[in-house]
Fold:
Amino acid sequence: MQTTDQLETLLAGLNDPQREAVTYGEGPLLILAGAGSGKTRVLTHRIAYLVATGAAQAGEILAITFTNKAAAEMRERAELLVGRRVRAMWVMTFHAACARILRAHADRLGYTRQFTIYDQADSRRLIKRCMEAANVDPKRFTPAAIHSQISDAKNRMRDAEAYAQMVGSYFEQTVANVYTGYERELHRANAMDFDDLLGRTVNVIELFPEVRSAYQDTFRQILVDEYQDTNPVQYRLLELLSGERRNLTVVGDPDQSVYGFRGADITNILSFEEQFPDAAVIRLEQNYRSTQTILDAANAVIANNRGRKEKQLWTELGEGDPIHVRELDDEHAEARFVVGEIQRLVDAGASLSEVAVFYRTNAQSRVLEDTLVRAEVAYQVVGGTRFYERAEVKDAIAYLTLLVNPQDAGSFSRIVNSPRRGIGVTSVARILGYANTLGASVWEVAAEPASVPGLGAAAIKAVGRFMETMVALRERATSGEASVAPLLGAVLDQTGYLEALRAERTIEAQGRIENLEELVNVASEYDATEGEERSLSAFLQQLSLVADADTREDDKGVVTLMTLHNAKGLEYPIVFMIGCEDGIFPHSRAIEEGALEEERRLCYVGITRAQRDLYMTCARQRTVFGAHGYAVPSRFLGEIPDSLTDRGEQQARGRAGFRERLTSWPASGPAATAETGGQSLRVGRARANPEPPAFALGEDVSDSKFGEGTVIGLEPGGIVVVRFRRDGSERKLLSQYAHLSRR
DNA sequence: TATAAGGGATTTTTT
DNA sequence: ATCCCTTATA
Structure:
């Protein structure tokens, strides 16, 4: 118990509802936190308050988020309030908490504690295999469609058996068949997918009363962030963990529920009061982020949704500037407008890092990127291919995974012929099939390749050599020596993986090598961390739950580009929302499926990211999938009152296109100056400095691997494009690494 | 068994 | 337009 002074310090600077939320006593609590209303602040202060008043020990707090980034932020900010006691708290994602619980109890469900976690791509590969096994026509149903159906079933706690009970169409019957096989194969591989982490945790808690009561005792206080994004399993999990005590604090904003398409159930937050009739509800409506104009626009748009929990955001920050709405000719003009405007703002003193551009679909970034590159404005794209999704990184991880989980057929088939060892798909299928027949693990079967029926002599030899290497590596991995980085180095080396990449000597291969070096760095960092049990399998589990090496940098002085979905939780002084056209945003598929309200919430999310300046643009014509089309401004634009925008002003001038032309970027010429009155261009970080080319265009060259060829292109960064005579191939080589010589 | 040409799809994605 | 995957071929 702390002194009153200390408690007062905790509460200082909080507004009334925030203070009420922080100090609320026992029982369920729903905090409806509007955008920018300080919900993380409330959560962390509540955590500190609970500890300070003795309502819970640090070790009795479970604070759940959806992303690692949010968990890290919460942990940091809680540490500022409670100090090192934060170490005892469970501040982590749903999946990480479940993985931790399962590492202790998965054996009760027939898994080992080294179980592998399959990410979406792993799952999809397995689904595909199961579809083949069940003779499903891949033309008729895609693995993605089937996986999403299975995932949806898992989110609703329907196992394969329950699903099969209620099929109503041929598609569902097909899914049921694949689902059954998929579950069997997952379990055989001692693997769980992301959905299983949640579902199996629920299973273990439901099935074993002693496990249940242990965790119910441990977690005296449970707090959940972004509650509007929870799905039915997560609800069940919270219900089980909070137990009789029901000290459950959930924070969220139903208007920011934008993940319904992946199973999030907005009714969790909308019906919280029915599910917990004694719940207190606190609304945080004061916004500390945006101007009143921006908030009014957001309020106006979201008001068109039905069945909401009413909420009116307000601020003391003042009215601010009107929202800039622009209609441009096409996506190129739109991009030029955005870039020109960014340059104008920068000239007026803004920093590029204050600017973000949001779009509905990733494909929209391309035109914008081209325009930014031409204008030499530095930018970063958030999302896209992530570090741990790169093939070489996944390969390296699969090698390690197979070493700790020799049952993992997925990892085995991923790397057995990577690098090429002359073990093709047929041979792999024979090995997997034989393992299936025997009910043995892939490892055991591969260790005796000669006994696999139908395996050719060459394949037997190749598999034998592969397994020789793997057995040696496994001995090393299980010898009790805990350092991961040296082991990873040995894997990359002894399996010939690095050698094969080096032999390619292409710019792409060089990039892959660098990625692998980065992975070794990640491993070294892991090796150096203190506390907790460090082991290869713990490392791998940690990796599998960190999808992104979080590439976004806030202070790099670059413009940030991302999808609206990725924008959730962020804020920028200046925001551009591009492609505000019906069919793009709201997306045509969403319109077809009647998912307009979720699109509108996405619009609400986008608008409320802006602190000071908000631009919304649309194009009259746009090329989609290579086809020209005319576009209509987004219905969401129409939902914003004209009085909040500069549309009237634009019309009053009677020359809507005039200003655009003034600030637009000339269609060509990288060094062109914007026609904005002769200001000098602010140029961002140069993207690549061309080195003096070692080779000249048209020069005849010779490469030790590809033979003779001709230089047909030179690109910045010392990249030489060569067409080789032998096979007519065009390859990009990095002159610095390539074994290239003049003839 | 490994590489080249055709065909079809194509939203968003915290883990 | 583009990417990915299947199919055809050396």
About this structure: Chain A is about 45% helix and 15% strand. The radius of gyration of chain A is 28 Å. Residues 655-693 of chain A have pLDDT under 50 and may be disordered. The longest helix of chain A spans residues 457-478.
